[in-house]
TrEMBL record:
GO annotation, biological process: methylation
Protein name, per record: 3-demethylubiquinol 3-O-methyltransferase
Any one of the GO CC terms: mitochondrion
InterPro entries for this protein: SAM-dependent_MTases_sf, UbiG_MeTrfase
Positions of transmembrane segments: 177-195
C-alpha cells in the first residue's frame, strides 16, 4: 500500500491547465484569483506569527533565517509576501507557465527583487526527494482541492519538512455552504465555475487523518469566509 502511494503522482494535468488558463489575469485584483490577494491580508500575518511567535509588527526581517517552501505557488501571490518578510522562500509548481510568470513578477516589487524567491517547475514528490527534512515551514494554500492524490501530496510535503517544522494548509471545506459561496456565488462574479470541483474539496478530518498518519499533530484550525459579491474575507485568524 505504501509503495503504491509513493509511486503515484499528485498532479492532475486537467487542474494544471485550468490554472494556466488564468495566467493573464493571475495578479489582477479583479481577476478570478484576485481572492488570493485578499487572502494574503489574513493568511500572511497568521502564518508569519505562527513561525516566529514575536507578537511584534512584521518587518522585512521578521522571517530572516526561515526556510519556507510554498507548494503550488502559481504566479507567486503568496510566495512574494514571505520574501518581503525576509524568508528564504522557494516556490514549486507543476506548471512551467506559472513558474515563468512568478519569476517574471518577482522583478516588479523591489522588496521581492532584493530577496528573490527560488522558483522551480517541479512536483512536490520530486522536490521532497531532493530536499528531505529541509524546510522550517511548508505551505500548501488553496492547492489540496486540485491534486490527483492527496495522500501522496501531503506525504511528500511532510517529507520536505525539518523535524519539528510547521505545515500550513488552506483549503475550502467540503460543505454545501462552501460550495455555494466559492462555486455558485463565485461563478456569478469572476471565479470560473469549473475551476473547483466540489467532490475534490476535503473535510478537515480527512486532512487531519492523513497528517496524523505522517506523524504530524494538528495544532490549530481556523476559519475563513469569503463573500464574492462584497469581495470581502472574514476570519477568526
Ligand atoms: C488556486 S492556485 C493557488 C496558488 C497559490 N498557492 C496561492 O495561494 O496564491 C492552485 C495552484 O496549485 C497548483 N497545483 C495544482 N496541482 C498541484 C499539485 N499536484 N502539486 C503542486 N501544485 C499543484 C496549480 O498549478 C496552481 O498554481
Amino acid at each position: 500500500m505504501r509503495e503504491q502511494t509513493i509511486m503515484a503522482s499528485s498532479v492532475d494535468e486537467v487542474e494544471i491547465q485550468k490554472h494556466n488558463d488564468l495566467m493573464d489575469s493571475w495578479w489582477s485584483l479583479d481577476g478570478a484569483l484576485g481572492v488570493l490577494l485578499l487572502f494574503n491580508r489574513v493568511r500572511i500575518p497568521f502564518m508569519a506569527e505562527e513561525l516566529v511567535s514575536s507578537g511584534k509588527k512584521l518587518t522585512a526581517n521578521s522571517l530572516k533565517g526561515k526556510k519556507v517552501l510554498e507548494v503550488g505557488c502559481g504566479g507567486g501571490i503568496f510566495t512574494e509576501e514571505f520574501a518581503k518578510l525576509g524568508a528564504e522562500v522557494t516556490g514549486v509548481d507543476p506548471s512551467p507557465l506559472l513558474i515563468a510568470l512568478a519569476k517574471e513578477h518577482s522583478k516588479v516589487d523591489e522588496r521581492v527583487a532584493a530577496n528573490k524567491p527560488t522558483y522551480l517547475n517541479t512536483t512536490i514528490e520530486d522536490h521532497s526527494k531532493q530536499f528531505p527534512n529541509h524546510y522550517d515551514a511548508v505551505v500548501a494554500s488553496e492547492v489540496v482541492e486540485h491534486v490527483a492524490n492527496i495522500d501522496v501530496f501531503l506525504e511528500s510535503c511532510v517529507a520536505a519538512l525539518k523535524p519539528g517544522g510547521k505545515m500550513f494548509i488552506t483549503s475550502p471545506n467540503r460543505t454545501r455552504l462552501a460550495q455555494f459561496f466559492a462555486m455558485v456565488m463565485g461563478a456569478l462574479t469572476v471565479i470560473p465555475m469549473h475551476l473547483m470541483t466540489y467532490s475534490k474539496f476535503r473535510k478537515l478530518d480527512e486532512i487531519s487523518a492523513i497528517l496524523k498518519r505522517n506523524n504530524c499533530r494538528v495544532d490549530k484550525v481556523k476559519g475563513l469566509f469569503y463573500l464574492p459579491f462584497m469581495n470581502k474575507v472574514f476570519s477568526n485568524l
